[in-house]
Write a structure and sequence with these properties.
Layout (H helix, E strand, L loop, with lengths): L1 H11 L6 E10 L11 H17 L4 E5 L8 H10 L3 E4 L12 H19 L5 E2 L10 H13 L3 E2 L8 H13 L3 H30 L5 E6 L2 H16 L2 E3 L2 H4 L19 H8 L12 H14 L1
Parallel strand pairs: 1-2, 1-6, 1-7, 2-3, 4-5
Helix pairs in contact: 2-3, 2-8, 3-4, 6-7, 6-11, 7-8
Amino acid sequence: MTRTLALLAAAACGAFGQRQVAITIDDLPLGGAPPHNCEANALGKLTSQLLTPLRDAHAPVTGFVIGQNCPKSFAGSLRLWKEAGYELGNHTYSHRDLNETPLDEFEADTVKGEKALMAATGQRPRYFRHPFLRTGGTAEKRAAFEKFLAGRGYTIAPVTLDNSDWMFAAVYGGAQVGGDATLAKKVKDAYLPYMESIFEFFEKRSVEVVGREFPQVLLIHVSQLNADCMPELLSMMKRRDYAFVSLEAALKDEAYRLPNTYSGKGGFSWLHRWSATKGMPNRGEPDEPKWIAEEFAKQQKGKD
């Protein structure tokens, strides 16, 4: 029975024996994880390091841009993404939380982000990614904002492979800034097994919720950690029999038309939203290691 389900799932993905994943990367040009170095040469080096293995693997990528990030290096950095052939989507101007922001202010911030992206690239974005994956908090607010997005021609970019890469990245970057090579190595060594556990969980959860595996959408962030680990991360996906597809191709799968009535405060995988809509018991993905959470909390306390 298990082998039969696996064969059916592979066939449903459109290529016998092969899974599919669309890679999406948030917080372009550079997120908040240290070292947050927006200087043009440093940012260009990080961006090139991140993109080179993706390009070599012929992996389509959609990057989601925060309009206010790295203003002096904004256009130059985005040019590297465009030259690599990658699509860029809107992640708002200032990465505010829709659940906590008045709707009119959030809509204005979305338009401002759109204008910043268009000014830098000359192209209108067609995908929108909610900051923190928080989609409104209430059914009314969610519906109103989705109507606004549709009116501007946006497709919402869902996420199925959600994870805490941002927390690993913050601890890793903090260790580098602090000169703690031992901690940096410990984070890097823990990152790939953690990410593989995420893939394994959501592969199984896909069969439970959808009845089969389907093209997944991975969310990760621009960070030095992902730049340093990208070759190994891509190798892990290939080892798990993934082919790389565009976000556009992934969203053609009928799974992304499943009913989604979730409108609570959380920001998480669409698989959790679909399961909640179906009334299924919740099953959360693997947590980051406890020591990562503790190091992150210590780092945040040090900023206060």
